[in-house]
Automatic annotation (TrEMBL):
Cited HAMAP family: HisD
Domain of life, source organism: Bacteria
Identification of the protein by name: Histidinol dehydrogenase
Binding site for Zn(2+): 267, 270, 369, 428
Cofactor note: Binds 1 zinc ion per subunit.
InterPro entries linked: Ald_DH/histidinol_DH, Histidinol_DH_CS, Histidinol_DH_monofunct, Hstdl_DH
Keyword annotations from UniProtKB, A to Z: Amino-acid biosynthesis, Histidine biosynthesis, Metal-binding, NAD, Oxidoreductase, Zinc
GO MF term set: histidinol dehydrogenase activity
Stretches assigned to coiled coil: none
Active-site residues, Swiss-Prot/TrEMBL: 335-336
Protein source organism: Massilia aquatica
Cofactor requirements of the protein: Zn(2+)
Pathway note: Amino-acid biosynthesis; L-histidine biosynthesis; L-histidine from 5-phospho-alpha-D-ribose 1-diphosphate: step 9/9
Assigned EC number: 1.1.1.23
Length: 440
């Protein structure tokens, strides 16, 4: 069975409505998922490890259903052994990717320095940047294993200076992915626990007898993970709700259609709920990409996932011109935007909303997923309008620093007292006034 890919045309009178319907994604707020996640979190909060054990055994089908959480802890020696046993080419690829990710994120750290400045009366003001003490990183593992996501989560945490990095990753059927363990060794993760889903998010947020609570939970996951992160926000920090993967290819019709078809597949193969869309002004070229899609699909091991995702949520969209393609791209605010065109920079200049932009036909999104250096944990479902890629800044926080000199207290004390009386807050006013020198 082949893909029934949806065709849209921006000239259609109901185009906007069709596009809105295509983009609507409600899985993480699906009522059945919400109910189930609320129950799991409640259970983990009140029954701790016992609940985590039960849900893990059930949802991840762990053989022999262990009765102790110790079964899910992966010792550092096992992480190192996985790294040592890795085929040389895999190890080299992981290490090179980790190094490139580190170099990119070190640049972010340089941009995030604190500051102080001193006023003429000796008052000093500033901002201090401190890494978080303890973070939980969620590495998805239900439908595929993601060593690359280990690096993308843990390396920026390490660069930021986080002391304790607790990684959770589900192991369906109890099978541990050796590359995931090796990546954790390379990235210097403090502790790996093979649990996933809402129960892992709950354990990290509330803590259990065997897992101390973390300060923040980061990382992508399925709708259960997303719903759980949304619910525990406030008890802990979260980075964002990173849902199913998305790719938007904006193409002027000059790239090999097979390349574009495969780029669309590259995100569609993640998940039946993933979204792959192409915008192009050239109808003949769109037909060529569609022919490539039909030709290449049977060659793909994950054809079933690609077929479902592209049939349910994919589209080939004919636009008036590249300028209109940019306008629509801004409205879609995709996780990944490929600008597969001659002189891509002219179009990139017009893009305001995208998790990551890949410029030119050689910048396939897949390179960014693994090893360019920028993070692959990106805002999805149009949240690129207001949020950013996972970065060093997610693992740091700011504190204001205020040193008021005696002279400064004379000026600021009068201003503060005036405002405090205006607000009817006498203690505030008096506290400022007590520091004023008596009038000579
Ligand atoms: N944005 C990114 O950077 C990025 C990176 C990699 C993957 N992804 C996305 O992350 C997602 C990963 O999803 P996944 O499913 O493969 O792995 P996952 O680890 O997110 O989810 C697996 C867990 O879901 C829970 N679960 C499954 N069915 C359940 C049910 N019926 N009730 C309660 N809990 C249930 C189980 O606890 C299981 O351990 C995909 O959508 C993929 O596209 C995003
Ligand atoms: N494309 C995913 C983010 O949406 C990240 C990833 C990991 N491995 C392959 N791809
Ligand atoms: Zn990917």
């Amino acid at each position: 069975m082949t893909i029934q890919i949806r065709h849209l045309d921006s000239a259609q009178p109901d185009f906007k409505q069709r596009l809105d319907t295509l983009l609507a994604f409600e899985a993480s707020t699906d009522e059945a998922i919400e109910k189930s996640v609320a129950a799991i979190l409640h259970d983990v909060k009140h029954r701790g490890d016992a609940a985590v054990l039960e849900y893990t055994n059930k949802f991840d089908r762990i053989p022999a259903s262990p009765t102790s959480m110790a079964a899910f802890d992966v010792p550092q020696t096992e992480l190192q052994a996985a790294l040592d046993a890795l085929p040389a080419a895999q190890r080299a690829a992981l290490e090179t990717a980790a190094e490139r990710i580190r170099v990119f994120h070190e640049r972010q750290k340089e941009e995030l320095r604190g500051f102080t400045y001193t006023e003429p009366d000796g008052t000093l003001l500033g901002q201090k940047i401190t890494p978080l003490d303890r973070v939980g990183i969620y590495v998805p593992g239900g439908k595929a294993a993601y060593p690359s996501s280990v690096l993308m989560n843990a390396v920026p945490a390490k660069v930021a200076g986080v002391l304790d990095i607790i990684m959770v990753v589900p192991t369906p059927d109890g099978v541990k992915n050796q590359m995931v363990l090796a990546a954790a060794a390379i990235a210097g993760v403090t502790r790996v626990i093979t649990i996933g889903g809402a129960q892992a998010v709950g354990a990290l947020a509330y803590g259990t007898a065997t897992i101390a609570p973390v300060d923040k939970i980061v990382g992508p996951g399925n709708a259960y993970v997303a719903a759980a992160k949304r619910r525990v926000f406030g008890t802990v920090g979260i980075d964002m709700i990173a849902g199913p993967s998305e790719i938007l290819v904006l193409c002027d019709g000059t790239t090999d259609p097979d390349w574009v078809a495969m780029d669309l597949f590259s995100q569609a193969e993640h998940d039946e709920l993933a979204q792959a869309i192409m915008l192009c002004p050239d109808a003949d070229y769109i037909a060529k990409v569609e022919a490539s899609i039909h030709k290449l699909l049977p060659t793909m091991p994950r054809a079933d996932t690609i077929r479902t995702s592209m049939t349910d949520r994919g589209a080939l969209v004919k636009v008036r011109d590249m300028q209109e393609a940019c306008d629509i791209a801004n409205a879609i605010a995709a996780e990944h935007l490929e600008i597969s065109a001659e002189d891509p920079q002219q179009w990139a200049d017009k893009i305001r909303h995208a998790g990551a932009m890949f410029l030119g036909r050689f910048s396939s999104e897949s390179l960014g997923d693994y090893c360019c250096g920028p993070n692959h944990v990106l805002p999805t479902s149009r949240t690129a309008r207001f949020s950013s890629p996972l970065g060093v800044y997610d693992f740091q926080k700011r504190s204001s620093v205020i040193f008021v000199s005696e002279a400064g207290a004379q000026t600021l004390g009068r201003i503060a007292a005036e405002l405090a009386y205006g607000e009817g807050l006498q203690a505030h006013a008096r506290s400022a006034e007590l520091r004023l020198r008596p009038a000579a």
